[in-house]
Amino acid sequence: MHPPATRGDGRGGRPRGTGGAAPGPARGGGADGRRTAPLRQVREPPHRRARPLRVRGLHRADRRALRLLPRGLDGTAPRPAAHPGAAVTAGLLEWLDAPSASEGLRYLTDDGTWESVPYTRLAGLVRATARDVRDHGLTTGQAVAVLHRTGPGFAAAFFGVLAAGGTPAPLAPPAALGDTRRWRAHAAHVIEECGAALVLAERDLAEVAADVAGPSRAVLPPPDARDAEPGPWAPAETALLQFTSGSRGRARGVRVSRGNLEANIAMIGQRWADRAAGTGVSWLPLYHDLGLIFGLLTPVVRGESVGLMRPEQFVQQPLRWLREHHGRPGTVMLVPNFGLEYVVRRVRPDRLGGLDLSGVEAIVTGAERVRLDAAAAFLELLGPCGLRPSALRPAYGLAEATLGVSCAPLGRVARAVAVAPGPVRMGEPLPLVGSATVSRRPPAGPGTWHVGCGTPLDGLTVRIVDDAGRALPDGSLGEIAVRGPSVALGHTSEQEDRATRFEDGELFTGDAGFLLDGELYVVGRIGDSLQVRGRNVYVEDLEAALAEEGLLTRQRTAVLAGYLGDEPTVCVLTAAPSAENVVACLAPLVGPDVTVRVVRVKAGVIALTSSGKPRRRTMWRRLLAGEIDGPLLASSEHAGARP
């Protein structure tokens, strides 16, 4: 049996139940319940805590860089880490003590121009926000809902709540969910679930915020220009309430500690940012973990400039997003798989003349399953612009691990492997039938391609386990389990569906995957699968197959799986006018015991989360209740029986 994949001291994995962040609530400190110094070794025991480094005669930028280096580089003996690969972290609010006047946020305005907010100005807005929320009676540890679109107002509200000792809970703006009634229900649920004492809202969103918050909660607009006294800053133990997208039901709040955030930001710095000049321009929403933590918090805490676009601005002008990275060496770009597909679909090659992307250090792609054909098409489009295939860095993460868990290593083209078509069995070796890299489109032939998401970030241990929590060998399909200092404290409340859960300091993700040569491959959600005779059919595999054949359009088609009566069924809901070839495409994947039905529905029936993911559980419940009705476009008594 192989040891779990780990990053850090090179000694391999550790037995289950040792180390890692505690799963339950703790008071007065980091993820382990102890108070955290502004600069510390992650999970360092109290008797080993070091005072912040003070090195005279260094430029401020050099001192900032020194804070992110391993201990021992100041001439003293290195201190042993309490966790493999533990990293020195900078406090979330350290940047407020000496904010940079030359670095800061840039954001794209509605008139198409860029406006800059240096960190000196942002620090003043943060202090003013902290003053306002304290004046309204906020006490340490209380939650505050943050309803701001992408821009400096969001950053000021988020860090202002932290500086005041509160816990920010970002809310998606109304436009993110499209349907006003759905947004109101979602926002009311988040505000109630986190027990928000206040709501911070943009001025033009204050009225709708007050409607959903109710009369017992004050809604505060952005602060006036009056500055406020500087620190001392005393952030609460829980530094973030990150609500999941709700793809499996109602959104769940994840309690992320200050130690969790600082640790994951340090991991991101070690894996990505220390080799780069910083994040270029991010269009990812700030109410979700990738855009918030990687796109905003990491550059702010590290004192690096970052550009911000709203998601709708990227949708309207994907070429402008690309051009913002022209001729910029060492930049990092963030994009989910949908963004790769969107760029390929919307940007014509003849409009790329003169674009230079040779300096791009990394394109981190995560938030959803990365498809080999989408990655290869993106690289094929932008290769003539100097984009190196090794820059594309598939990654895996989830809110319950704060953000990042693994990422493809530097300097190597990301890999992919093909699994033989047909259902697969949890706990057993996967039948691999091919291998490739993301630099070219997948070769013809049977099989489902899975793109590798790299090795665990420093300080994290990843295992693949069976139903009993026992580690599985390389190449075997099981549940992904994660242990380390960025594993969150837990959820705000438990639900009947506990696919993602915390046990003895370890996060059981509810995602199926496998390890191969130390690299993690993610197959899909365990709950979004159909088990037939002990084997699993994953809807992500089915959607990928339909997309490769050009039979699936994002936001107009959803694949559901479950039991209708006693019969295992795959139901394809589509707003497309035709279902030709859908059944034939899925037949070899689902096996002979599964019925396939294709139902025509109106576009509004395809329920999506605030991040654009299908709400499969919600749609399946509606289907069972007879609330989804439409003409049957195609079906098979047993799909596998058809040629």
Secondary structure: elements and pairs:
Blueprint (H helix, E strand, L loop, with lengths): L4 E2 L32 E3 L18 H8 L20 E3 L13 E5 L5 E5 H17 L7 E5 L4 H12 L3 E4 L3 H4 L2 H15 L3 E4 L4 H8 L4 E3 L17 E6 L9 E5 H14 L6 E2 L1 E2 L6 H14 L3 E3 L2 H6 L1 H6 L7 E4 L2 H10 L13 E6 L6 H11 L9 E6 L6 E4 L7 E5 L12 E6 L10 E4 L3 E2 L4 E5 L12 E6 L6 E2 L9 E3 L2 E11 L2 E7 L3 E4 L2 E4 H10 L8 E8 L2 E8 L7 H9 L4 E6 L15 H9 L7 E5 L7
Helix pairs in contact: 2-3, 7-8, 11-12, 13-14
Largest sheet: 6 strands, antiparallel
- What is the name of the CATH superfamily of one domain? ANL, C-terminal domain
Number of strands: 34
Q: What is the architecture of one domain at the second tier of CATH?
A: 2-Layer Sandwich
Number of helices: 15
The CATH class designation of one domain is Alpha Beta
How much is the average pLDDT? Answer: 80
Portion in helices: 10-25%
Q: For the record, give the distance between the C-alpha atoms at the N and C termini, rounded to a whole number.
A: 40 Å
**Any idea of the CATH topology of one domain?**
GMP Synthetase, Chain A, domain 3
Description:
The protein has 643 residues and is α/β, with parallel strands linked by helices. The chain has a domain at 530-641: 2-Layer Sandwich (GMP Synthetase, Chain A, domain 3), CATH 3.30.300.30. Helices cover 24% and strands 25% of the residues. The chain has 15 helices and 34 strands. Strands 1, 23, 24, 26, 27 and 28 form a six-stranded antiparallel β-sheet that branches. The chain has a six-stranded mixed β-sheet with strand order 12-15-16-17-18-22. Strand 32, helix 14 (582-590) and strand 33 (595-600) form a beta-alpha-beta unit. Helix 2 crosses helix 3 and helix 11 (337-346) packs across helix 12 (372-382). The longest helix is centred in the first third of the chain and has 17 residues, at 119-135. The chain is globular. The model is unreliable at 7-89 and 638-643 (pLDDT under 50).
